[in-house]
Write a structure and sequence with these properties.
single chain, 4-stranded mixed sheet, 1 helix, 12 strands, globular
Length: 141
């Protein structure tokens, strides 16, 4: 088996969004979310929101927001039904402005991503993805 990286680009705002495959590769959808009943919209851990995945803003790990999309900043958001694309949960990846100490004004375009690293079986030849793209075309490679 040889390691491979899977990129997922889903965009609703500014820059590109990426997803990589983490640990032993598993076919992970977002139905394993462990959100307690009555959870109010806001930040939650990525371990609870997207088990098996790690959320990033740029190169830094990030919390996931539950049912609270961003109004302009880069963010990873777990959406539940009826806002999900399919099933009980979907993940919204929003590129936007983020902290960047080396940039003028301290902000720069930032990507949002979720990553899972692992070994893809030698015989694997396809990836299944159900997504909705906003203003920027969807690209999967």
């Amino acid at each position: 088996m040889k390691p491979r990286i899977m990129h997922l680009l889903v965009m609703m705002a500014i820059p590109a969004v990426t997803s990589y495959c983490q640990g032993t590769f598993q076919n992970l959808d977002f139905e394993l979310a462990n959100i307690p009943p009555g959870q109010v919209p806001g930040p939650v851990s990525d371990a609870a929101a997207i088990p098996g995945w790690i959320a990033y803003l740029g190169t830094q790990p990030s919390a996931v927001f539950y049912d609270l999309p961003s109004a302009g900043a880069a963010q990873v958001t777990l959406l539940d039904a009826p806002a999900s694309i399919e099933g009980s949960f979907s993940v919204l990846l929003q590129g936007g402005l983020g902290n960047s100490p080396g940039s003028p004004g301290g902000v720069a375009p930032t990507e949002a991503s979720i990553r899972q690293t692992g070994l893809v079986p030698v015989g694997a030849q396809s990836i299944f993805l159900k997504a909705q793209a906003g203003f920027i075309p969807l690209s999967v490679s």
